[in-house]
Amino acid sequence: MTTTTADARSQPGAGAPPATRSAALTSYDVADFSVPTMRDEDWRFTPLSRLAGLHDGSFVASGTPVKRSVAELPSGVRIENVGRDDKRIGTALVPFDRISAQAYTSFTEAFVLSVDKDIQVETPVVVDVGGGDLDGASFAHTVVDIGAGSEVTVVLDHTGPAVLADNVEVLVGDNAKLILVSVQDFDSGSVHLQHQRLKLGRDARITHISVSLGGDVVRQFTTVDYTGRGGDAQALGIYFADGGQHLEHRQLVDHSVPDCRSNVVYRGALQGKDAHTVWIGDVLIRPEATGTDTYEINRNLVLTEGARADSVPNLEIQTGEVVGAGHASATGRFDDEQLFYLMSRGITAENARRLVVRGFFAELIGRIPVEELRDRITATVEARLAEAGA
Amino acid sequence: MSTLEIRDLHVSVAIADGEEKQILRGGVDLTVKAGETHAIMGPNGSGKSTLAYSIAGHPKYRITSGSVTLDGEDLLSMTVDERARAGMFLAMQYPVEVPGVSVSNFLRTAATAVRGEAPKLRTWIKEVKEAMERLEVDSAFAERNVNEGFSGGEKKRHEILQLELLKPKIAILDETDSGLDIDALRVVSDGVNRVSETGEVGVLLITHYTRILRYVKPDFVHVFVGGKIVEEGGSELADRLESEGYVRYTKAAV
């Protein structure tokens, strides 16, 4: 079965208005939040029974913490492991749900990656996040702090086994330009629940590319905040759910400042029994955010029977003076007719599927400025297609 | 010289709830040789498209008995892509959209599959460009997604473009003339004639109307009614159908 929710407003109860969510409780204290249930709007798509107890405190606390390492550190870029009292922690992010608060109160050391002001870092900074296990829960905290006027590409590459809840704070200074690629490619059986909060300075630009491939359950919430005019956020996403995987991506783009831009483009493919993807795109344009230009789109490609894609864009506009504001969502099937058409031109079934999926992802994968990573994502996608075709 | 032989074809089509409906009941014997152009004409619902799609191997159709061979090789035991690589081509009445796949990527993938190796890039680009010019399609066409947002005329030109590039042994054109304005009809017909004049391709032209036969002269005309061939002749038969219609046959069939 496939479902598409093209417009939340056409489905009663399908989405709390973004304004409601942005005004929701924020707290560092787990106890301030009630345990999520399937009746909560924010959790109704999430398989709570598969979260290893990260949401209700019943988790086993003995997990090996993930390690963060950078093989090659360009000059002007620093990495540190700091204690909970470091003043950079909490500058962008205050937890707004129980799991985020659990992660916030449970981590022991935070990983801080900072980039000096006014430098251009040519080499991408690749942070390997891994070394966890499936024996128990682990928690982490990451701060990415880009100095004003600097340009850099950072990759957060999540691999290996993990049962992880963590928060990532990203500060993009005035006039800085960051490309942040976050790859969620944990081993099967892994659970990864993450909140990333991006805070943009004046004229700051971010291209945020989320790539979710591996893990039993991946739920990533990305929030974008603007603190000065001229901020520009490109939030791109690529995901491929195989049988039994749950990949969920939520965004809240909070336009609270005039003359900022956002563009959200998520594309997902699904194959296999009980593959499930969820995309919830919330965009809020507050009364003071005049001159906002925003667009969000989610497209899903369902390759086989038995997979399900949920897609809900929510756009709430509280001022009439916007440059542009739009949203779209479409879920399509790779169907027998397309397969027949391509095969009738001599193309094998496997190549036909590869051609379609490659075309579907090509534009977004092309935005990743790290060749090895592009090749790895393409190879992973094609290996899965080959498996399904076999 | 290639030969397509269709013998005693019985075909049923899957309808709702696992039920099947018999469309072709064995009255189809047809031999198409390279260099020949055959027109299959008949009223709507006579089973013309069933014939085309079952030869190409569409999963909706099940061949219950009979045979189809290309140069003696059993087409019916082949998968859809194997049939195409063996030399069959079907220009479809309703070509499907394939989002995310550009025309240029699609054409090159298909040519690589059919030819058994990737065409050399430089000659390939020239080959495609020339074929597109002959079919009067804009060069921007190559970067559009396959059939996505194409007009009726563009879809059919795209089918004939593939026909010219893939150089099959036998080409089946299913209602290629439908939905074309007079200019597009001329361009598409010229394409079919170019392919046919090579003498290396057998053409099976399926049509409801005689209109396209003003541009493409068939060597043989087969009248198809009620799932079987009811009359055969030369191009003069098409002229007769033009004036008399199918009434004579449909009455007899009932």
TrEMBL record, chain A:
Residues 1-21 are annotated as: Disordered. InterPro entries: Fe-S_cluster_assembly_SufBD, SUF_FeS_clus_asmbl_SufBD_core, SUF_FeS_clus_asmbl_SufBD_sf, SUF_FeS_clus_asmbl_SufD. SUPFAM superfamilies: Stabilizer of iron transporter SufD. Residues 136-360 form the SUF system FeS cluster assembly SufBD core domain. Belongs to the iron-sulfur cluster assembly SufBD family. This is Fe-S cluster assembly protein SufD. It comes from Fodinicola feengrottensis.
